[in-house]
Design goal:
This protein has ten helices and four strands; from the N terminus they run ββββαααααααααα. The chain has helices at residues 58-63, 65-75, 77-87, 93-96, 99-106, 111-117, 122-128, 131-141, 150-156, 158-166; strands at 8-15, 23-29, 32-38, 52-57.
């Protein structure tokens, strides 16, 4: 699984909190944390100022209260927590897998389990609601699906097609 770790473990950039308009970037590599900042100002003395860059080891980051405060102030507690976990060597390999592999894994779950999976993170919610996931679900789990229905699915969406034609909640009971 170590091959899933690329050059950068994590990277994020954004404008800092007001009143200044400074811009920040946080990069976490296998060995170090890189904090870059750009001073954004209309004042003449700030024009052409080079960006500042601070490189520190993971271990040093964990003990640097000032840098952790800056990360929290710019990116929030969630990003700070994630950065700390990465610096401690706690990698979330599942989050690093490509979407097509995750959808393939999800195809082995029962649909009720995918509703729980959608609550894990924004990424999993997006995957569980993706057209690709629902297309694979209909094609692989619905024996009544015919090629004639493909046009309907493309027009109305694969998820809606599933719940309209194949799921018991979408069917009207005939008496």
């Amino acid at each position: 699984m170590a091959s899933l770790l690329g050059k950068h473990l994590f990277e994020i950039s954004a404008q800092g909190p007001p009143p200044p308009k400074d811009y920040f970037q946080l990069v976490i590599t296998k060995n170090e944390v890189i904090w870059r900042s750009w001073k954004i100002s209309v004042r003449l003395e700030a024009r052409g100022a080079a960006p500042k860059e601070l490189k520190t080891s993971h271990q040093d980051f964990l003990h640097n209260k000032s840098l952790k405060y800056d990360v929290d102030a710019v990116f929030g507690q969630r990003i700070l927590d994630h950065t700390i976990l990465l610096c401690e060597g706690k990698f979330d390999y599942l989050e690093r897998l490509p979407d097509d592999i995750l959808i393939r894994i999800m195809s082995y779950l029962q649909l009720k389990d995918t509703t729980l999976m959608a609550q894990v993170s924004h990424r999993f919610r997006k995957l569980c609601n993706s057209e690709k996931f629902w297309e694979d679900t209909v094609r692989n789990r619905c024996a009544e699906f015919t090629s004639d229905m493909e046009g309907i699915a493309n027009a109305m969406g694969w998820k809606k097609l599933f719940f309209t034609f194949f799921h018991s909640s979408g069917r009207k009971e005939q008496q």
